[in-house]
Amino acid sequence: MRLKDKVAIITGGAKGIGRETALLFAREGAKVVIGDFDVTAGQQTLADLKATAAQALFFEVDVTDRASVKRMVDGTVAEFGRVDILINNAGLTADAFLTKMTEEQWDRVIAVNLKGVFNCTQVVAPIMMEQGSGVILNASSVVGVYGNIGQTNYAATKAGVIGMTKSWAKELGKKGIRVNALAPGFIVTAMTAKVPEKVLELMKSRTPLGRLGEPQDVAAAYLFLASDEASYITGQVLGVDGGLTF
User: Fold this and answer.
1) Are strands 31-36 and 7-11 parallel, antiparallel or unpaired?
2) What is the C-alpha separation between 74 and 55, in angstroms, rounded?
3) Distance between CA 25 and CA 37 in Å, rounded?
4) pLDDT digits (tens, 9 = 90+) for 52-86
5) In this predicted model, what pLDDT tens digit does every residue of 14-61 receive, in sequence order?
6) CA triplet 206, 244, 160: central angle to 5 degrees?
7) Phi, psi of 88 (to 5 degrees)
8) pLDDT per position as a tens digit, 159-181
9) String of b and e for 193-232 (b: at least 16 CB within 10 Å)?
10) In the β-sheet with 177-184, what is the strand arrangement from edge to edge?
11) How many domains does the chain have?
Protein backbone atom coordinates (compact mmCIF):
# COMPACT_ATOMS: atom_id res chain seq x y z
CA MET A 1 0.00 0.00 0.00
CA ARG A 2 1.47 3.30 -1.11
CA LEU A 3 -0.18 5.47 1.57
CA LYS A 4 -0.36 3.08 4.51
CA ASP A 5 -1.46 4.92 7.67
CA LYS A 6 -1.07 8.35 6.04
CA VAL A 7 -3.73 10.89 7.03
CA ALA A 8 -5.16 12.74 4.02
CA ILE A 9 -7.57 15.69 4.00
CA ILE A 10 -9.38 16.12 0.67
CA THR A 11 -11.50 19.23 0.18
CA GLY A 12 -14.31 18.88 -2.31
CA GLY A 13 -14.04 15.19 -1.49
CA ALA A 14 -17.71 14.26 -1.74
CA LYS A 15 -18.10 14.11 -5.50
CA GLY A 16 -16.24 13.86 -8.80
CA ILE A 17 -12.45 13.97 -8.67
CA GLY A 18 -12.40 14.41 -4.91
CA ARG A 19 -14.54 11.33 -4.31
CA GLU A 20 -12.45 9.18 -6.67
CA THR A 21 -9.33 10.38 -4.91
CA ALA A 22 -10.76 9.57 -1.49
CA LEU A 23 -11.70 6.05 -2.55
CA LEU A 24 -8.32 5.44 -4.20
CA PHE A 25 -6.37 6.77 -1.22
CA ALA A 26 -8.37 4.54 1.12
CA ARG A 27 -7.57 1.51 -1.03
CA GLU A 28 -3.91 2.47 -0.74
CA GLY A 29 -4.09 2.46 3.06
CA ALA A 30 -4.72 6.12 3.90
CA LYS A 31 -6.97 7.44 6.63
CA VAL A 32 -9.21 9.78 4.66
CA VAL A 33 -10.91 12.99 5.75
CA ILE A 34 -13.50 14.44 3.39
CA GLY A 35 -14.26 18.14 3.59
CA ASP A 36 -17.23 19.34 1.55
CA PHE A 37 -20.21 21.71 1.75
CA ASP A 38 -22.52 19.04 0.29
CA VAL A 39 -23.59 17.09 3.36
CA THR A 40 -25.69 14.49 1.54
CA ALA A 41 -22.93 13.58 -0.91
CA GLY A 42 -20.33 13.74 1.84
CA GLN A 43 -22.21 11.30 4.05
CA GLN A 44 -22.69 8.94 1.11
CA THR A 45 -18.99 8.96 0.26
CA LEU A 46 -18.16 8.44 3.93
CA ALA A 47 -20.48 5.43 4.02
CA ASP A 48 -18.87 4.04 0.87
CA LEU A 49 -15.43 4.44 2.42
CA LYS A 50 -16.43 2.77 5.67
CA ALA A 51 -18.00 -0.08 3.71
CA THR A 52 -14.46 -0.93 2.61
CA ALA A 53 -13.30 -0.87 6.26
CA ALA A 54 -11.41 2.36 5.67
CA GLN A 55 -10.82 4.76 8.53
CA ALA A 56 -12.58 7.93 7.42
CA LEU A 57 -14.25 11.14 8.58
CA PHE A 58 -16.53 13.70 6.96
CA PHE A 59 -16.70 17.38 7.87
CA GLU A 60 -19.13 19.89 6.45
CA VAL A 61 -16.78 22.69 5.51
CA ASP A 62 -16.84 26.03 3.75
CA VAL A 63 -13.27 26.62 2.62
CA THR A 64 -13.90 30.37 2.43
CA ASP A 65 -14.58 30.42 6.19
CA ARG A 66 -11.38 30.14 8.26
CA ALA A 67 -13.26 28.94 11.37
CA SER A 68 -14.92 26.17 9.36
CA VAL A 69 -11.56 25.03 7.99
CA LYS A 70 -10.00 25.06 11.45
CA ARG A 71 -12.81 22.88 12.84
CA MET A 72 -12.10 20.32 10.12
CA VAL A 73 -8.35 20.32 10.70
CA ASP A 74 -8.66 20.29 14.50
CA GLY A 75 -11.11 17.39 14.24
CA THR A 76 -8.71 15.50 12.01
CA VAL A 77 -5.83 15.91 14.43
CA ALA A 78 -8.02 15.00 17.39
CA GLU A 79 -9.02 11.73 15.68
CA PHE A 80 -5.86 10.74 13.84
CA GLY A 81 -3.09 12.76 15.52
CA ARG A 82 -1.55 14.26 12.38
CA VAL A 83 -2.05 15.46 8.80
CA ASP A 84 0.25 13.97 6.16
CA ILE A 85 -1.51 15.03 2.96
CA LEU A 86 -3.68 18.01 2.07
CA ILE A 87 -5.43 18.04 -1.29
CA ASN A 88 -6.94 21.42 -2.09
CA ASN A 89 -9.47 20.06 -4.56
CA ALA A 90 -12.56 22.17 -3.80
CA GLY A 91 -13.52 24.54 -6.58
CA LEU A 92 -16.34 25.97 -8.67
CA THR A 93 -17.06 27.90 -11.85
CA ALA A 94 -19.30 30.86 -12.64
CA ASP A 95 -18.61 31.52 -16.29
CA ALA A 96 -19.35 34.68 -18.26
CA PHE A 97 -17.67 36.87 -20.83
CA LEU A 98 -15.58 39.67 -19.33
CA THR A 99 -18.08 42.39 -20.17
CA LYS A 100 -20.98 40.41 -18.69
CA MET A 101 -19.34 38.93 -15.59
CA THR A 102 -20.92 40.18 -12.39
CA GLU A 103 -19.00 41.21 -9.30
CA GLU A 104 -20.71 38.39 -7.42
CA GLN A 105 -19.49 35.84 -9.99
CA TRP A 106 -15.97 37.16 -9.67
CA ASP A 107 -15.97 37.30 -5.86
CA ARG A 108 -17.46 33.84 -5.35
CA VAL A 109 -14.98 32.05 -7.61
CA ILE A 110 -12.04 33.95 -6.12
CA ALA A 111 -13.24 33.14 -2.60
CA VAL A 112 -13.55 29.39 -3.12
CA ASN A 113 -10.80 28.64 -5.64
CA LEU A 114 -8.11 30.99 -4.37
CA LYS A 115 -8.84 32.10 -0.81
CA GLY A 116 -10.08 28.61 0.05
CA VAL A 117 -6.76 27.08 -0.99
CA PHE A 118 -4.93 29.72 1.05
CA ASN A 119 -7.12 29.13 4.11
CA CYS A 120 -6.71 25.36 4.14
CA THR A 121 -2.98 25.47 3.54
CA GLN A 122 -2.31 28.16 6.13
CA VAL A 123 -4.17 26.14 8.78
CA VAL A 124 -2.51 22.82 7.89
CA ALA A 125 1.05 24.03 7.22
CA PRO A 126 2.04 24.61 10.88
CA ILE A 127 1.00 21.03 11.72
CA MET A 128 3.14 19.65 8.92
CA MET A 129 6.03 21.91 9.91
CA GLU A 130 5.92 20.57 13.45
CA GLN A 131 5.86 17.01 12.08
CA GLY A 132 8.75 17.78 9.75
CA SER A 133 6.90 16.25 6.81
CA GLY A 134 3.85 16.63 4.61
CA VAL A 135 2.48 16.87 1.09
CA ILE A 136 0.25 19.65 -0.22
CA LEU A 137 -1.40 19.18 -3.61
CA ASN A 138 -3.38 21.97 -5.27
CA ALA A 139 -5.93 21.71 -8.05
CA SER A 140 -5.04 24.11 -10.82
CA SER A 141 -6.18 23.69 -14.44
CA VAL A 142 -4.98 23.98 -18.00
CA VAL A 143 -7.13 27.12 -18.00
CA GLY A 144 -4.79 28.62 -15.40
CA VAL A 145 -1.88 28.17 -17.80
CA TYR A 146 -3.47 28.94 -21.17
CA GLY A 147 -6.64 30.90 -20.35
CA ASN A 148 -10.11 30.26 -21.72
CA ILE A 149 -12.93 32.29 -23.21
CA GLY A 150 -15.61 33.13 -20.66
CA GLN A 151 -13.53 32.11 -17.65
CA THR A 152 -11.70 35.23 -16.50
CA ASN A 153 -12.46 34.49 -12.86
CA TYR A 154 -11.66 30.77 -13.03
CA ALA A 155 -8.46 31.30 -15.01
CA ALA A 156 -7.31 33.95 -12.56
CA THR A 157 -7.77 31.60 -9.62
CA LYS A 158 -6.07 28.66 -11.26
CA ALA A 159 -3.12 30.80 -12.32
CA GLY A 160 -2.99 32.11 -8.76
CA VAL A 161 -2.91 28.55 -7.42
CA ILE A 162 0.19 27.87 -9.52
CA GLY A 163 1.87 30.96 -8.09
CA MET A 164 1.02 29.93 -4.54
CA THR A 165 2.21 26.37 -5.20
CA LYS A 166 5.64 27.52 -6.33
CA SER A 167 5.95 30.03 -3.49
CA TRP A 168 4.98 27.47 -0.84
CA ALA A 169 7.34 24.87 -2.30
CA LYS A 170 10.19 27.33 -1.77
CA GLU A 171 9.04 28.35 1.71
CA LEU A 172 8.23 24.90 3.07
CA GLY A 173 10.76 22.62 1.38
CA LYS A 174 13.31 22.92 4.18
CA LYS A 175 10.60 21.86 6.61
CA GLY A 176 10.17 18.56 4.76
CA ILE A 177 6.98 19.60 3.00
CA ARG A 178 6.45 19.08 -0.72
CA VAL A 179 3.98 21.26 -2.64
CA ASN A 180 2.79 20.52 -6.17
CA ALA A 181 -0.16 21.32 -8.41
CA LEU A 182 -2.19 19.40 -10.95
CA ALA A 183 -3.50 21.03 -14.10
CA PRO A 184 -6.31 18.81 -15.40
CA GLY A 185 -7.80 19.30 -18.82
CA PHE A 186 -11.44 18.54 -19.56
CA ILE A 187 -12.53 15.90 -17.05
CA VAL A 188 -15.99 14.30 -17.01
CA THR A 189 -17.49 15.78 -13.83
CA ALA A 190 -20.51 17.85 -12.78
CA MET A 191 -18.44 20.92 -13.65
CA THR A 192 -17.96 19.92 -17.29
CA ALA A 193 -21.61 18.90 -17.47
CA LYS A 194 -22.31 22.63 -17.76
CA VAL A 195 -20.15 22.89 -20.88
CA PRO A 196 -22.03 22.67 -24.21
CA GLU A 197 -21.68 19.29 -25.90
CA LYS A 198 -20.23 20.83 -29.06
CA VAL A 199 -17.45 22.41 -26.99
CA LEU A 200 -16.65 19.08 -25.33
CA GLU A 201 -16.55 17.36 -28.71
CA LEU A 202 -14.18 20.05 -29.97
CA MET A 203 -11.90 19.52 -26.98
CA LYS A 204 -11.99 15.78 -27.52
CA SER A 205 -11.05 16.20 -31.18
CA ARG A 206 -8.08 18.38 -30.19
CA THR A 207 -6.83 15.95 -27.56
CA PRO A 208 -4.15 13.55 -28.85
CA LEU A 209 -5.49 10.71 -26.69
CA GLY A 210 -8.90 11.20 -28.29
CA ARG A 211 -11.06 11.30 -25.15
CA LEU A 212 -12.04 13.44 -22.21
CA GLY A 213 -10.44 12.63 -18.88
CA GLU A 214 -12.11 10.62 -16.13
CA PRO A 215 -11.94 11.48 -12.40
CA GLN A 216 -9.78 8.42 -11.80
CA ASP A 217 -7.16 9.82 -14.18
CA VAL A 218 -6.67 12.80 -11.87
CA ALA A 219 -6.97 10.68 -8.72
CA ALA A 220 -4.09 8.49 -9.95
CA ALA A 221 -1.93 11.58 -10.46
CA TYR A 222 -2.78 12.79 -6.95
CA LEU A 223 -1.79 9.37 -5.63
CA PHE A 224 1.60 9.44 -7.32
CA LEU A 225 2.44 12.94 -6.09
CA ALA A 226 1.23 12.12 -2.56
CA SER A 227 3.31 8.95 -2.37
CA ASP A 228 6.96 8.51 -1.46
CA GLU A 229 7.60 7.71 -5.12
CA ALA A 230 7.46 11.48 -5.70
CA SER A 231 9.72 12.31 -2.73
CA TYR A 232 12.04 14.46 -4.87
CA ILE A 233 9.31 16.36 -6.70
CA THR A 234 8.16 19.77 -5.49
CA GLY A 235 7.10 23.10 -6.98
CA GLN A 236 5.82 21.41 -10.14
CA VAL A 237 2.61 21.61 -12.17
CA LEU A 238 1.61 18.25 -13.61
CA GLY A 239 -0.69 18.41 -16.63
CA VAL A 240 -3.38 15.72 -16.70
CA ASP A 241 -4.98 16.61 -20.00
CA GLY A 242 -4.51 13.81 -22.53
CA GLY A 243 -1.95 15.92 -24.38
CA LEU A 244 -4.38 18.78 -25.05
CA THR A 245 -1.84 21.48 -24.31
CA PHE A 246 1.57 20.28 -25.41
Assistant:
1) parallel
2) 17
3) 21
4) 999 999 999 999 999 999 999 999 999 999 999 99
5) 999 999 999 999 999 999 999 999 999 999 999 999 999 999 999 999
6) 135
7) -85, 85
8) 999 999 999 999 999 999 999 99
9) eeeeeeeeeebeeebeeeebbebebbbebbbebbbeebee
10) 56-60, 31-36, 7-11, 85-88, 134-139, 177-184, 237-240
11) 1
Smallest Cα–Cα separation from 54: which of 102, 88, 19, 101? 19
Confidence of residue 145 (pLDDT cuts 50, 70, 90): very high
Q: Is residue 246 in a domain?
A: no
pLDDT of the residue at 194:
73
Mean per-residue pLDDT over the chain, rounded: 96
Neighbours of 171 (CB within 10 A): 13
Confidence of residue 190 (pLDDT cuts 50, 70, 90): confident
User: Is there a domain that residue 2 lies in?
Assistant: no
Domain residues for 133?
Answer: 7-187+214-236
Residue 242 lies in a domain: no
**Does the pTM exceed 0.85?**
yes
Report the C-alpha gap between 7 and 10 in whole angstroms: 10
Please indicate, yes or no, if residue 245 is contained in any of the structural domains.
no
The residues annotated as belonging to the active site are 154
Q: What is the pLDDT of residue 174?
A: 98
Q: Kindly provide the b/e burial profile for residues 91-112, where b requires at least 16 CB atoms within 10 angstroms of the residue's own CB.
A: bbbbbeeeeebeeebbebbbbb
Each residue of 39-51: b (16+ CB within 10 Å) or e?
eebbeebbeebee
Opening angle at CA 245, ends 224 and 228, nearest 5? 10
The CATH number assigned to the domain holding 150 equals: 3.40.50.720
